[in-house]
Amino acid sequence: MESNDSFIMLATFEGPYSVQLCAFGLFLPLFVVTIVANVAVLATVAARVDLHKPMYMFLCSLVVADLISSVSTMPKQFQMLLTGDNRILYTTCMAQIFWINVFVIMQVLTLAAMAFDRYVAICFPLHYHTIVTGKRAIIIFSLWSLTISAFVPVTILFAPLKLKDSDRQMQGILCDNIGFARVSAGDTRIHEAYGSGIIVVLIALPLSVISFTYFRILPECKRTHSSDFKNKAMYTLFTHFLLLMLFFIPLFLSALVPRLGCETSAAVPSTQVSSCPYQM
């Protein structure tokens, strides 16, 4: 049986138990639908040879990342809603941090790869099959390898840290790097420096790649005289831009805004937990 020394406290859903049960009844079907839909996408792409194309391979990469994120985080949230027990094991928290980080970075890198794929298809259509198609498996494998390799050191750095004897309350409903460092008793400056480096390399650089591809594709669309080509190119840009917005808007809201909120609400202990959700 685990001792209380190995537990960390997560923020809980504030409300009567009946409301928590309603939330459980609402989110559980959504979770099941998400899992089934993602598995269906993977099965469809695997079964149909005509879908074995780079964009669908990248889509499958996004789906796998989404599955990992959902399975590694949602069961604990359902348990908290049902039991009200907001304790999470140290080892479970470490695993959750690892897979959430992998999910976020994998999404960013895959979206950057999709942007590059569209850039080559639109700006260099005659060379597309030699540049991208033959290397799709290598690209996807490299993205996953890079992402996992980047966060293995984070886990190794966090592992020796001891938890504080008191104040083990995280500010979010999920385990995250900043929250874990906050409840740790040791020096976390190395962790913060490494985390900042990852943000620069694995988020800022992919965003730069995405911006570059957009700036190159848009002039190409204006120069072409083929309305069919222009329509296909703009549709491609629109669908990719929609994916970007669906991912980055929630990411920025959950990572950047709460940090500012935590600073301004630090003097109000009663609202500190509920006002600071997941931070990367």
Properties at a glance:
single chain; 280 residues; mainly alpha; Rhopdopsin 7-helix transmembrane proteins; 73% helix; globular; disordered C terminus; G protein-coupled receptor activity; olfactory receptor activity
The CATH topology corresponds to Rhopdopsin 7-helix transmembrane proteins
Strand percentage, roughly? under 5%
Strand order of the largest sheet: 1-2
- Mean pLDDT comes to 80
Measure the end-to-end span: 31 Å
User: Count of helices?
Assistant: 10
**What structural class do the secondary elements suggest?**
mainly alpha
CATH top level is Mainly Alpha
CATH superfamily: Rhodopsin 7-helix transmembrane proteins
Note the main sheet.
2 strands, antiparallel
Q: What sequence of helices (H) and strands (E) makes up the elements?
A: EHHEHHHHHHHH
Evaluate the radius of gyration: 21 Å
Helix content: over 70%
Shape label: globular
Number of domains: 1
Low-confidence stretches: 261-280
Q: What is the strand tally?
A: 2
Subcellular location: Membrane
Membrane topology: Multi-pass membrane protein
GO molecular function, one term: G protein-coupled receptor activity
Pfam family, one: 7tm_4
